[in-house]
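INFO batch 0412 | record 1 of 1 | parsing
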Amino acid sequence: MYHCTLCDLIHKGNFSTLNFYLNNFTDVEALQNATRDILYLDGWTNTTGALRLTRTEIFNVANGDRPDVPNVAILITDGNPNIDEHLLADEVENINKNNIRILAVGVTNRVGF
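INFO prediction complete | emitting tokens
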């Protein structure tokens, strides 16, 4: 079993916004409903901010992280990073140091991984 952030836990538009923590829901249906209720916000692609929130807020014991379960984040993006992109490599390094694994999925033709 893995801890896994969902794309909709964090909006990564102009400002990364945390929508809920891992411990806000105890059943799959409530989590699915909360995820469906999050609106898509068009804007810039703040991958750096989203990864920072994932590392500091999502995978945080106070917010539901379980230290005995591997942390995996699914990053779903519709574009290349264009906010604080000069800080992205450092944030990825911090993610790696914290043993968080990331699966990235591009959902438009504007993604050039």
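INFO post-check: Residues 3-106 form a domain with the Rossmann fold fold (CATH 3.40.50.410).
INFO record closed
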